[in-house]
Amino acid sequence: MLDIIEKYPILGAFGMTIYLTFFSAIGALVIGTILAVMRVSPVGVLRRLGSFYVNTVRNTPLTLILVLCSLGLLYILEINLADPKSPTSIVDNNIRWAIVGLAVYHAAFVCEALRSGVNTVPTGQAEAARSIGLTFGQSLREVILPQAFRGAIAPLGSVLIALTKNTTVASIIGVSEASGLMKEIIENETGGLPVFFVFALGFVILTLPVGVFFTSLSRRLAVKR
Amino acid sequence: MDELKPDQVDPSEDSSRPREPMVVIEGVNKHFGDLHVLRDINLTVGKGEVVVILGPSGSGKSTLCRAINRLETVESGTIAVDGNPLPEEGKPLAQLRADVGMVFQSFNLFAHKTIRDNVTLGPIKVRKKSKDEANALADRLLERVGVAEQAEKFPAQLSGGQQQRVAIARSLAMGPKVMLFDEPTSALDPEMVNEVLDVMVGLAKEGMTMIVVTHEMGFARKAADRVVFMADGQVVEVATPDEFFTNPRSDRAKDFLGKILTH
């Protein structure tokens, strides 16, 4: 068993999982925040656009979105995210498109988590903000969103855990992250089950602390009312 | 702020309305679904005047108070503050709200900010004051309402009375032309009511224009220039506190006073 593990770059594969998670999480947080602001804005068009995005993306399988990124955008429309002349252009393109797909997909969930956070903020807070003369944007930035983020920490943690595990879907567009390597090992070597457990353990080690951390964070940062 | 001039204490001349108008409400109507909460309201509040709005619950007094800085929209009629009609939305409305202080029943201090930051937020973001200036202003105002020692704490660590006094300081920090109080003592424990009312009486004496929705008859007697009695969405009676409490003209007012003053 050990010799099998030593033969393959398992740590490197999990490194790729972490890399994908890290950058798509940042992307999802940014896009999701913008979507959440759109969904609570007083402008009807923005609200409808926001709900359209969330309803469409949330109800599309992630596999489909990643295949669209890879086949549709990269190979058919030839939108390159990496220098096509570089020797690693195929790998880089796959990784970057995977990050885009993952970010776009999870942004919908971040948006909904944030919106649930906005709902934890009493309306009186917004009224007080408006009544001292803050504009809509200022009220959001200074009063509503800071409290909404704190109220949304626990659900945001769940989204991050889901995102970590969903990076495995990137293997279908040729990104060599952990689950891709697992498939490779199981195909090449004997002893499928132990290999599976090693990788399962790897994901537990990645996500368990995230859950614990976010739970304690949400308790520590909770807004006392 | 100026001390109250003797001629302002006597509100009996109010019918001749010697003051410049600060808030002018004309022909205002509003429905909540089928309920006609504001029926053709007309009311003018002069500069430096303290108007107390009384009435049974559901009479529309809170809605009227909130309509003055457009936390509630109205369907018809106009509301003007210091000669400017309320803007519809956006920046002009925000600017007008900065000039109209509002104190809520449930305090609504910003829960994630310290007491001092609650007071400085408006001056910094809206009045574009420097942080130092705003802090100095906040400390002065917190001192004045008697919660200076609490400046570093968060709202949840303060008693209701202290929170409400901070809320008053937060409004004052904007240098408002008029202050609205929407049942400021209704959510307070009885022993904390007076500390808030004392601050309000102080403000009234200094000549602040105030519109106060309250059930505190003592405050109405002590500080009000005029009492506006509302019932079923209408202004039923406008009188000096003396007249209103000793000799109410309308049956609704007699009925109302009979119910609350018998204890």
UniProtKB/TrEMBL annotation, chain A:
Membrane disposition: Multi-pass membrane protein
Biological processes, Gene Ontology terms: amino acid transport
Chain segments annotated as transmembrane: 16-38, 59-77, 195-217
A GO MF label: transmembrane transporter activity
SUPFAM superfamilies in the record: MetI-like
GO cellular component terms listed in the entry, alphabetical order: ATP-binding cassette (ABC) transporter complex
Protein name: Glutamate ABC transporter permease
Species this protein is from: Intrasporangium oryzae NRRL B-24470
From TrEMBL, chain B:
This enzyme's EC code(s): 7.4.2.1
Listed SMART domains: AAA
Record keyword Ion transport present: no
GO molecular function annotations of the record: ATP binding; ATP hydrolysis activity; ATPase-coupled polar amino acid-transporter activity
UniProt-annotated stretches for the region Disordered: 1-20
Keyword Kinase: no
Pfam families recorded: ABC_tran (PF00005)
Reactions catalysed, as given in the entry: a polar amino acid(out) + ATP + H2O = a polar amino acid(in) + ADP + phosphate + H(+)
Family that this chain belongs to: Belongs to the ABC transporter superfamily.
Name of the protein this chain belongs to: ABC-type polar-amino-acid transporter
